TrEMBL record:
Gene3D superfamilies recorded: Aspartate Aminotransferase, domain 1 (3.90.1150.10), Type I PLP-dependent aspartate aminotransferase-like (Major domain) (3.40.640.10)
Known cofactor(s): pyridoxal 5'-phosphate
Annotated ranges, domain Aminotransferase class I/classII large: 31-384
EC number(s) reported in the record: 2.6.1.-
Family named by the database record: Belongs to the class-I pyridoxal-phosphate-dependent aminotransferase family.
UniProt xrefs under CDD domains: AAT_like
Protein's recorded name: Aminotransferase
InterPro entries associated with the record: Aminotransferase_I/II_large (IPR004839), LL-DAP_aminotransferase (IPR050881), NHTrfase_class1_PyrdxlP-BS (IPR004838), PyrdxlP-dep_Trfase (IPR015424), PyrdxlP-dep_Trfase_major (IPR015421), PyrdxlP-dep_Trfase_small (IPR015422)
């Protein structure tokens, strides 16, 4: 029987192949150090958990909640934007709470896409950026992921050669997986371009607060006039170590926010009210929790770069996010990122995410997530050192092994 139309457009996650190997190694008793998935390992701060526990005792919170988010939560998100970015938002019309930013992004794609609409999407990027639109009947045109001098010329080419003209442009800085950060000047150029060409900007700012070296990433909404064409997505998952709670936001242009709210009103009743109340309390807090989360990732980043470097694998220090985007060491690059990742699981007992899982232009890299503690990261480095030392000598065999799969 032929596969369903939509399911055919959703190839199995590339990461699944590494996950399967990981599971089978673990079932043999291997102690796999898992730096693969971007699943924060830190506990949610106690004050947020306590708030949830208090609120959940009130039976009035057990009813259906509101799909757009309770007013106090939308106000808290608007206050966060005012504090952090100097951006004024109307909590009534310019803020929607989402069930994690991923849900918000995917339903925004559903709300605005007509069959065949062209969407400009970075490559490599977090998979929902492309697949949210592919599921909605859109067509993806890949653009480069780095926010450098080549970006605007690439957009100009895309507008000239896309039929129909692109509907939307996706931005994701700090980027998953590349960890690239964009400057406000870059955003100014992009907003001018989008306004001139009547293109919607969808900015994924999930890593707004996970930055190092004292350089907070800007919001594209800081650019005057951006509000006319932009919606930005943020997430509680990384900022407050709340990935399982499923809480995020879309903010920005009223017409786009209204479209998302309309779709969501048909699909969900919003997050469980105690989660929304606890999330509002987190956003209204003094920022000490965010600082703590950030400093843990900062220390892990430094340990990763230093220990992997000593092991013979030079990993550029990411300026933000919870990921390092690591070029595959030269002798192994020809294997491609999937085979290299499989080898790391089998021979070094370390799991990473193959770059090709984020798009074809990611295949020379793997993404290393900072989701194990410093001790485990050092342990991974020692194990990789042993792997590199032995595998380079027997590289021909390794490649043969990979080719035989
Ligand atoms: C760039 C990016 N956007 C969105 C998400 C999803 O976040 P949420 O848990 O808010 O759905 C992730 C999670 O890894 C991400 O890396």
């Amino acid at each position: 029987m032929e596969e369903f139309h939509k399911v055919r457009r959703l190839p199995p996650y590339v990461f699944e192949q590494v996950n399967r190997l990981k599971a089978s190694a673990r079932s043999r008793g291997a102690d796999i150090i898992d730096l693969g998935m971007g699943n924060p390992d830190l506990p949610t701060p106690k004050a947020i958990v306590d708030k949830l526990c208090d609120v959940v005792r009130d039976p009035r919170t057990h009813r259906y909640s509101t799909s757009r988010g309770i007013p106090g939560l939308r106000r808290a998100q608007a206050a966060y934007y005012a504090r952090r970015f100097g951006v004024k938002l109307d909590p009534e019309t310019q803020v929607v709470a989402t069930l994690g930013s991923k849900e918000g992004f995917a339903n925004m794609a559903q709300a605005i896409t007509a069959p065949g609409d062209v969407v400009l999407c970075p490559n490599p990027t977090y998979p929902i950026h492309a697949f949210g639109f592919i599921m909605s009947g859109g067509v993806i045109r890949s653009i480069q992921a780095e926010p450098d001098d080549g970006f605007i010329p690439a957009l100009e080419r895309a507008v000239r050669h896309s039929i129909p003209k692109p509907l939307a442009l996706i931005l994701n800085y700090p980027s998953n997986p590349t960890a690239c950060v964009a400057s406000l000047d870059f955003y100014k150029d992009i907003v001018a371009f989008a306004r001139k060409n009547d293109i919607i900007i969808l900015s994924d700012l999930a890593y707004a607060e996970i930055y190092f070296d004292g350089n907070p990433p800007p919001s594209v909404l800081q650019v005057p006039g951006a509000m006319d064409v932009t919606v930005e997505f943020t997430s509680m998952s990384k900022t407050f170590s709340m990935p399982g709670w499923r809480m995020g936001f879309a903010v920005g242009n009223e017409r786009l926010i209204a479209a998302l709210a309309r779709v969501k009103s048909y699909l969900d009743y919003g997050a469980f009210t105690p989660i929304q109340v606890a999330a509002a309390a987190a956003l209204n807090s003094d920022g000490a929790e965010i600082e703590e989360v950030r400093s843990v990732y900062h220390r892990r980043r430094d340990v990763l770069v230093e220990s992997f470097g000593r092991a013979g694998w030079q990993v550029p220090p990411p300026p933000a996010t919870m990921f390092a985007w690591a070029p595959i060491p030269e002798p192994f690059r020809q294997l491609g990122s999937l085979e290299f990742s499989k080898l790391l699981v089998e021979k070094a007992e370390v799991a990473v995410a193959p770059g090709v899982g984020f798009g074809e232009h990611g295949d020379d890299y793997v993404r290393i997530a900072l989701v194990e503690n410093e001790h485990r990261i050092r342990q991974a480095a020692r194990s990789i050192k042993r792997f590199l030392a032995t595998a380079e000598k027997t590289l021909d065999n390794v490649i043969l092994l990979a080719a035989r799969r």
